[in-house]
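Archive transcription. Copying these from loose printouts into the bound notebook so they stop getting lost. Printout 1 of 2:
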Amino acid sequence: MGELWTVPRQRWHQWVQRWQEQPRLRLAGWIILALLVIDLVGVCADWKGARQQEYTGIAEELRKMHDLARQSYWPERAVQAEDRLAQFRAHLWQAQNTSLARADVQSWLDIEIRKAGVMEPRVTVLDPVDFNDGKPDPRIEVQVRGSFDPTSYGRLLLAIEGAERWISIERVELSNGVSPSINLQLAFHWALPGKAP
């Protein structure tokens, strides 16, 4: 058993003797030790800085949450949002079902086209879009074609722009063939009963 400790003890004595005899080895050892200490101090400083920054961020978030909890105008904002939603819904077309919606669109367009004096009008009411899917923008798209006359189409566009209910012009195509013609693609936006937009 004593022989097992003899070899490590001899090597230890050799290292100690070299350490004492060689100033360069001592200098290199002290430099390495100093570098290790400096590195350790740097790592500790970085860790402390990261923890401090994390703590500051958490404290800031907590302060914001306390500020939000103390605010009393959320009910007022909810009322304002409900009013705005009601105003928005008032500008949507209303119908009980898709058949009535298509009939309303056809009727409104027939009246406005007649008032505007559009020549040779052809109105195609397309199938309703997103009426039964529960999507937020149910609409009916319509194609209006006719001979192009700037005055009559100007009046029709003014009627569309001034309508109480929301109508968007999706596309306008002018064709300059034998006789100039126009193709309007319109979308009538609806609010279905019991469904929020």
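Printout 2 of 2:
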Amino acid sequence: MAGHRKEYARPSNAKLRSLYEEQHETVGTIAKSLDVPPGRVREWLAEAGIAVRQGNQKVGVSAEEWEKKKARVVELYRELSPTIGAAAKWAEVSPGTMRAWLSEAGVGKCKTGKPRIEVDISPEELARLYERERSVARVGVALGVGVAVARRLLRESGIKVPWGKAGKTEREV
């Protein structure tokens, strides 16, 4: 029937509080254990007067503490201009959460200032090296750079190199 809302056996407020606040279960975990949609669990928590954590809020941290931490991390990010990964590691959150925080604060990605690795070798020499070595990784070792840099140098020189693992088809640059 259209508009019919399925009824579920609602646990007591004490049970919800125990699961969510004391056992630190997530909304998703509670929903799965009760075989109900997560939205229904959120609804029940609200009815019970239990504040639902934000999606990326750490368990055991109040919403107020979480907001203070976000503000401090964003402030440090602006001052120090680290990579997103380094900032996320320091804040003990995922890089995705770090990006979300920065986006909410209107902060764009910082440039690391790390120079692009360049190698002084002509396209002809690079082509000869690749023909001799027949491996992007071995070209990288010969040049003293990583595989990604070796692949970029080869492609920039107009040399077709396999994309990914050996045996995969080549792609045009």
